[in-house]
Amino acid sequence: MHLTLRFIGNIKKQQIPSLTGAIEQAIKGFKGFQVSTDRIGGFPELKSPKLIYLGLGGSCQLTALSDRINAVIDTKPGETKNPAQTGKYHPHLTLCRMGRQGGLTALVGSLSARNGITFAVDEIALFKSELGGKSPVYTVLRRFTLG
């Protein structure tokens, strides 16, 4: 399960220090906050999803945090420009990618019947993701504490 604020794409190892410095500047003074889940969804649609997610309601702070990070990543001079963030940011918790559709109805029903879950957001992390094999491998490159 993960929450993406910004997908950066491929970067060179030597870009990591300047990237982490830019993220530190972007989140400076940003305090931790609470977020709640509000719905279950699927991409591209819940009827035949490739991905199942929990939507996050009242997520103005997540959007503001994403906007701050996008501003520094899209405008860093002298480096390869990272992919621009396109479209509106829709905060969500990715729960799983779907293979076969078996058990989907039970999963959706179980999650839909639950009340929203509230949790604290008090840090963000820069991850390296390696695709291949059965599922991606995520490695934390750096953690950043909010506020």
Task: Summarize this entry quickly.
With 147 residues, the chain is an alpha+beta fold.
Protein architecture, described:
By secondary structure, the chain is of the alpha+beta class. The protein has one domain: Cyclic Phosphodiesterase, Chain: A (Alpha-Beta Complex). The protein contains three helices and six strands. It has helices at 16-27, 60-74, 104-112; strands spanning 33-43, 51-57, 92-97, 118-121, 123-130, 137-145. The strands form two sheets. The protein has a four-stranded antiparallel β-sheet with strand order 3-2-1-4. Strands 5-6 form a two-stranded antiparallel ribbon. The longest helix has 15 residues, at 60-74. The chain is globular and about 45 Å long. Mean pLDDT is 81; it is low at 76-82.
Task: Name the CATH architecture.
Answer: Alpha-Beta Complex
Tally of structural domains: 1
Quantity of strands, as a count: 6
- Record the strand order, biggest sheet: 3-2-1-4
Element string (H = helix, E = strand): HEEHEHEEE
Could you list the spans in which at least 5 consecutive residues all have pLDDT below 50?
Answer: 76-82
Average pLDDT over all residues: 81
Question: What fold name stands as the CATH topology?
Answer: Cyclic Phosphodiesterase, Chain: A
Structural class: alpha+beta
The biggest beta sheet reads: 4 strands, antiparallel
What is the alpha-carbon Rg in Å? Answer: 17 Å
Strand-residue proportion:
25-35%
Under the CATH scheme, which class?
Alpha Beta
Count of separate DSSP helical elements: 3
Q: Give the terminus-to-terminus CA distance.
A: 24 Å
Let me know the CATH homologous superfamily: Cyclic phosphodiesterase
Q: Helicity, in percent?
A: 10-25%
Question: What characteristic shape results from the CA principal axes?
Answer: globular
